[in-house]
Specification:
The protein is an alpha+beta fold and 422 residues long. The protein has 2 domains: 2-223 and 339-421, Aminopeptidase (3-Layer(aba) Sandwich), CATH 3.40.630.10; 224-337, Alpha-Beta Plaits. The protein is 35% helix and 22% strand. The chain has 12 helices and 16 strands. It has helices at residues 2-9, 17-29, 45-60, 106-121, 148-154, 171-177, 208-212, 250-266, 304-325, 344-356, 371-375, 402-418; strands at 64-67, 73-76, 87-93, 130-135, 195-203, 216-222, 224-233, 237-238, 273-275, 279-282, 288-289, 292-301, 328-337, 340-341, 361-366, 381-386. Strands 1, 2, 3, 4, 5, 6, 14, 15 and 16 form a 9-stranded mixed beta sheet that branches. Strands 7, 9, 10, 12 and 13 form a 5-stranded antiparallel beta sheet that branches. Helix 4 (106-121) packs across helix 12 (402-418) and helix 10 (344-356) crosses helix 12. It is elongated. The termini are close together. The structure holds glyoxylic acid (GLV) and manganese (II) ion (MN) (3 copies). One manganese (II) ion binds at residues 97, 104, 139, 368, 394. InterPro entries: Amidase_Cbmase, Bact_exopeptidase_dim_dom, Peptidase_M20. One of its GO terms (molecular function) is hydrolase activity, acting on carbon-nitrogen (but not peptide) bonds, in linear amidines.
């Protein structure tokens, strides 16, 4: 079939490892945080700068780069007519969390661009043209609308333009500055049938591959996630004069919820993970009983039923804490993403690509969210993981051995060739 045909004709094809690592090093400087790691927030100026850097690199390499209305970067080989036939979309995101690493997202984008360059240089003709993509605002770290770019492309951004940052500034107002266009946002939607398949290469962000000494992960599925915004209102009072029984301490309530959130997964095993990661205390003063707390809680699972059970239990815990503490606790859904399975045919393509390169592989689920889970709404998706040093990610210590980064990109290259028949 065309899959083996294309791959079989080019078995010796490899990415330029030094070029890939050089590109990643340059990207890592954009948004380098003086406090450590990389802070390149989605729809912010650093994400735009990273996109501009890559667009320039692609243009110099003879590729055609454009930014769509949602702020996604799309890169094509010259002459590959846009919209003419279904394409193989390959990419990830360029944004990071606050003080994140230099590889989460950027690796998959840089590798996709590298693969496109190799195909272009070797004039490899593909029955299904490959398009590289850098999705905007995957993390939702600034504007609370994760998977922004992939949702926009799939027509699933819903009320995304109304999403806000923590200060109440809307996504719409960020988007124009980010190089997109709120007015033309519907133009970022791709028509049904335009994506033949989506591939994403990513660092694992967890410990499995490293601990098992395996260089390549074939992702079986991706967790769904529900994020709740929780607002706790008590009464700010004097810390020295307010008797203990008379207090309505919003931080004590938040502490109760935080421990209960952990128990949902750790003790009660209702869902796989449950985390409180954001907490804002006001007035945040030593000698005042805290009157107000804003916090988040998120639950994750690969099973939609367990995800719903985790959320329901979390809501009950919030109600219990409200009753116990005398504070009012308001809960609002900030975002939901569904668990998805990757396409068995693409898993097989990835396994064969790794096998042909002599690389061991293992199958594993993803506990992190990825644009691939949004793309699964409109196309079969496949994901490749490479090891993360110490399993650490969303932190400055995030790292992967250079050889593993290059191997992963070679697996991506041969998966692109192999996916031609899927
Ligand atoms: C976001 O993508 C996450 O997994 O936290
Ligand atoms: Mn991330
Ligand atoms: Mn990521
Ligand atoms: Mn992610």
């Amino acid at each position: 079939d065309a899959l083996r045909g294309a791959a079989g004709r080019r078995p010796a094809l490899r990415v330029d490892g030094a070029r890939l690592l050089g590109c990643l090093a340059e990207l890592g400087k954009i948004g380098a945080d003086p406090a450590g790691g990389v802070t390149r927030l989605g729809l912010g100026p650093q994400e735009r700068a990273a996109r501009a850097f890559l667009a320039e690199l692609c243009t110099s390499a003879g590729l055609a780069a454009e930014t769509d209305a949602a702020g996604n970067l799309l890169v094509r080989r010259p002459g590959a007519a846009s919209g003419a036939a279904p394409v193989l979309l390959v990419g990830s995101h360029l944004d990071t969390v606050v003080q994140g690493g230099r590889l989460d997202g950027a690796y998959g984008v840089a590798a996709a661009v590298e693969v496109l360059r190799v195909l272009h240089e070797h004039t490899v003709e593909l029955p299904v043209e490959m398009v590289a993509v850098a999705f905007a605002n995957e993390e939702g770290a600034l504007v609370q609308a994760p998977f922004w770019g992939s949702r926009a492309l799939c027509g699933a951004l819903e009320d995304g333009l109304a999403a806000e940052d923590r200060a109440g500034r809307t996504a719409a107002s960020y988007l124009a500055e980010a190089g997109g266009s709120p007015e033309r946002l519907p133009e970022a939607v791709w028509p049904p049938g335009s994506v033949a398949a989506y591939l994403e290469l990513h660092i694992e962000q967890g410990p499995r591959l490293e601990s098992e000494g395996v260089p390549v992960g074939v992702v079986e599925g991706i967790v769904g996630r529900t994020i709740l915004d929780i607002d706790i209102t008590g009464q700010a009072q004097h810390a020295g004069t307010t008797p203990m029984p008379a207090r309505r301490d919003a931080l004590v309530a938040a502490a109760g919820i935080t421990l209960a959130v952990r128990e949902l997964a750790a003790g009660r095993a209702l869902c796989t993970t449950a985390t409180t990661g954001f907490l804002q205390v006001s007035p945040n003063v030593t000698n005042t009983v805290p009157g107000h707390v804003r916090m988040t809680a998120e639950v994750r699972d690969t099973d939609a039923g367990r995800l719903a059970v985790g959320e329901a239990a979390l809501r009950r815990e919030c109600a219990r804490v409200a009753a116990d503490s005398g504070c009012s606790v308001e809960v609002r859904v900030s975002s939901r993403s569904r668990p998805v399975a990757t396409a068995p045919a693409l898993r097989q393509v990835i396994r064969e690509a790794a096998g042909a390169l002599g690389l061991a592989q293992l199958s594993l689920p993803s506990g992190a969210g990825h644009d691939a889970q949004i793309m699964a709404r409109i196309a079969p998706v496949g994901m490749i993981f490479v090891p993360s040093a110490g399993g650490i990610s969303h932190a400055p210590a995030e790292d992967t051995a250079p050889a593993d980064l290059v191997h992963g990109a070679d697996v991506l290259l041969h998966s692109v060739l192999g996916a031609q028949a899927v």
